[in-house]
Inverse folding.
């Protein structure tokens, strides 16, 4: 099962931009993340729309932060990426009329909702600046 690593990748990239020159091109970011510049631009679009990054044109252009790392939470980045599902596990919908499937789905759904609420709450309490002390150690 494939994991969605966009959140981790974007946090990685935003902190790199801040710690280095304050700017990075899509090509530089793509090389750092082992992906294609088009993928980087696609992921950055949501961050740009939410006002977390800006695209600067020209010979010294690239992506730059539009806000301080202390003003961006992990939840902000998660939401800018379209709030991807936190779980690879899902509910069965093969037999919607089956009372057993409905019961299992209701119980698992409550557990998933509770877990997602707890995780997103934690995301909202962690800024990108909070992640830096671990990097500098």
């Amino acid at each position: 099962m494939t994991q969605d690593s966009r959140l981790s990748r974007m946090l990685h990239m935003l902190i790199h931009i801040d710690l280095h020159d304050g700017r990075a091109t899509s090509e530089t970011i793509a090389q750092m993340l082992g992906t294609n510049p088009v993928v980087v631009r696609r992921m950055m679009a949501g961050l740009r729309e939410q006002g977390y990054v800006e695209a600067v044109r020209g010979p010294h252009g690239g992506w730059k932060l539009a806000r301080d790392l202390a003003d961006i939470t992990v939840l902000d980045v998660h939401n800018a990426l379209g709030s991807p599902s936190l779980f690879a596990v899902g509910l069965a919908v093969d037999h919607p009329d089956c009372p057993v499937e409905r019961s299992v789905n209701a119980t698992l759904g409550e557990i998933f909702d509770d877990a997602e609420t707890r995780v997103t709450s934690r995301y909202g309490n962690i800024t990108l600046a909070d992640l830096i002390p671990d990097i500098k150690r």
User: Anything to note?
Assistant: Residues 99-124 form the longest helix (26 residues). The radius of gyration is 18 Å. Residues 53 and 65 are 4 Å apart (CA to CA).
